[in-house]
Amino acid sequence: MPAWDLARPAAWFACGLLPPDEWHRFLTAYRAADGPAVPADGDPWPALDVPARALTVQTAARAITKAAAEGRPLDEIEQALVDACDRMASVPPELVHEEAK
How far apart, in Å, are the Cα atoms of 97 and each of 26, 40, 49, 91, 92? Predict the structure, then answer.
């Protein structure tokens, strides 16, 4: 799935680790090269949301285990990943089943 090719930069952007101007420059160049992961225009997030979230969670988990193994607190980047996971923890209303409401 081509969207996984963009998961890392999309995750970095969503976590605040990739500045918006760099993300937009990257995305514009990707689209200009007819990259298949996102539509040529419009919102790229329907295609990128799941891969970016999955990579963020995986990277945060690795950061936590690495910091714990080294007996140190999370650094700024590692904390940004964990914070992004915390923000993702809430379930959007459109994903809540009717019986759970």
Answer: 36, 33, 20, 11, 11
- Do residues 55 and 63 touch, judged by C-beta distance below 8 A? no
Length of the chain: 101
15 token code pair: 């976590």
31 vs 44: CA distance, rounded Å:
10
Burial code (b: 16+ CB inside 10 Å, e: under 16) for 19-41 equals eeeebeebbeebeeeeeebbeee
Could you tell me the pLDDT band of residue 88, with boundaries at 50, 70 and 90? confident
pLDDT at 93 over 90: no
CA distance 32 to 35: 7
Q: pTM for the complete prediction?
A: 0.79
Q: At what angle do helices 45-69 and 7-15 cross, to 10 degrees?
A: 80
